[in-house]
Amino acid sequence: ETDTDMYYTVIAQAGETQFLPGAKTKTWGYNANYLGQTIIFKKGKHIHVTLKNELPELTTFHWHGLNVPGPIIDGGCHAPVYPGESSEIEFDCDQPAATLWLHAHPCPSTAQHVWKGLATGVVVQDDVEAALPFPRNYGVDDIPVILQDRKFHDDNQFDYMADYDPDGVQGPTPVINGTINPYFDVTTQQVRLRLLDGANRREWRLHFSDDLEFTQIASDGGVLPEPVTFTHLMLTCAERAEIIVDFGNYKPGDEVTLYSDDIAILTFKIHEFASNPLNLPDHLVDVPDPEVTPNSQTHKVVMSGMDEEVALNGRKFDMQRIDDRQQLGNVEVWDITNTNDMDGGMLHPYHMHGTQFKIISRNGHAPYPNEMGLKDTVSVNPGEEVKIKVWFNHTGVFMNHCHIIEHEDGGMMAQFEIF
Ligand code: C2O
Ligand code: CU
Ligand code: CU
Question: Could you tell me whether strands 332-338 and 298-304 are parallel, antiparallel, or unpaired per DSSP bridges?
C-alpha cells in the first residue's frame, strides 16, 4: 500500500539564523534553523508523521486547519512531546486543497515557541485544485509568504520576555519567510502567493505599489467559489489568503513592492517572462455549505477584554473542563461576539481546531466576498457578532481560541468535545 501512504519526519530543533549583519540569532525551527520547508500532503493519502522534539523543553506540533481525528493528532496542549522524545501520528488526509500551517501549541508557551520560529507552511493538494488554471510551480510562480515581525536586541538576539505584552508581542522589523528585506525574482507573468499571517499579534494591511490589483483565489480552508479582485487585503493572525498577482504591465528591471500599511515588506524584481494572460473562470469550485441541523443548539462564544482580562465566555482556559459539545454529523451555528469597545478595543481573530467552517454573517450582513470559502479563523471586530456554521469529520476534544497568541496563552481559550 505504499502508493497510499506518505511518510514524514518533523524535528523541532534549535539553531542559529543570520537575519542581520553581525551575530546570528538563536532560533528554533522545524528541520531547519527557523520556520521550515513547506510540508506537502495529498488528499486521499494516509499520512504518517514522526514528531521529534530536540529542544530543551516540551513542545507540541499543531496542524492548524487540518481536519484530524482527536486532540493527540491535532497537537494542541493535549499532545506534549517531551525533550529528547518523539511520537508518531497517522491520519487520512481528507480535505480540499488548501494552505494550512504547523505551529507549536504548548499552553501557555505557544507565543514564545512561535516567536522563536516554530511555524511552517502546510499545503494540501487535490485533483480539483490541480485542474484549475493557477500557477503551481513551487518556488517559481507559487510561493509561501509567511508574514511575521520581530524585535532584535543586543547581539541580534530575540528577547521575548523583554518585549512581552499581554495583548500580543510585536516587533518593528518585518521578517518575511524568515528574511529581512526579502526580494523575489519574477520570471513568470503571474505569481501565486500563499500568504499566512504567522505573527503573534500583528494584522497585515496588504497592498502593492501602483495600487496593483490582485486576485484572491483561496482562503484558510481552500479555493474560493469565485475569484475576488481588489487592491487591499487585511489578514489577521493565523489567516491565510492565496492571491495571484499579474505583473503583465511591468518590464524587466522594474520593481514592485508589497506593503503593509506604509512599511515595505517584500520586493518583486521583474525579469523577462513569456506573455501569459490570466484567464480564471468565474466559478472556481463548489464549496460545501450544508444545511444547519434542525432544532440543533446555537453555541455562544463571547470574546471579551484586553490585557490580562481576556476571557472566553467570561472564563479562562482550563484543560480539566470541557466547555461545549457538538454531535458528530450535526451542522450547528456558533455565534461569536467581541464585546470590546468599538473605539479603541481590540479585534480578536477567532479560531477553531479540527474543522473548516462557513461564515454566515457579520452583524447580520453577508460576509465579505473573500469570506465565501472555508475558514478556520475569522476576524471579529470590536462590537461585532459573527455567525458561523460548523461541522466536523471526527470525534474528539478540540480547542477554540483567540489567535492573538498572547491572548490564547492568557487563557482566552476553551475546549469542546465532538461526540
Ligand atoms: Cu493556530 Cu490553537 O492554533
Ligand atoms: Cu489551530
Ligand atoms: Cu484576542
Answer: parallel
Topology at the third CATH level for domain 142-270 = Immunoglobulin-like (2.60.40)
For residue 407 and ligand 1, the question of a CB distance below 6 A is answered with no
Q: What is the pLDDT of residues 354-396, one digit of tens each?
A: 999 999 999 999 999 999 999 999 999 999 999 999 999 999 9
SS3 139: coil
For the stretch 106-152, pLDDT in tens is: 999 999 999 999 999 999 999 999 999 999 999 999 999 999 999 99
User: 5-126 adopts what CATH topology?
Assistant: Immunoglobulin-like (2.60.40)
Q: What is the ipTM of this complex?
A: 0.99
Query: Ligand 1 atom 3: the closest Cα is on which residue?
Result: 64
353 lines ligand 1 (CB under 6 A): yes
Q: What is the DSSP letter of 241?
A: E
**Ligand that comes closest to the CA of residue 404:** 3
Centroid of ligand 1 to alpha carbon of 394 (angstroms): 18
Cell of 186: 519574477
169 Cα to the center of ligand 3, angstroms: 12
Distance of CA 228 to the CA centre of its chain: 20
Q: Is the CB of 348 under 6 A from ligand 1?
A: no
CATH 2.60.40.420 in the chain is located at 5-126, 142-270, 298-418
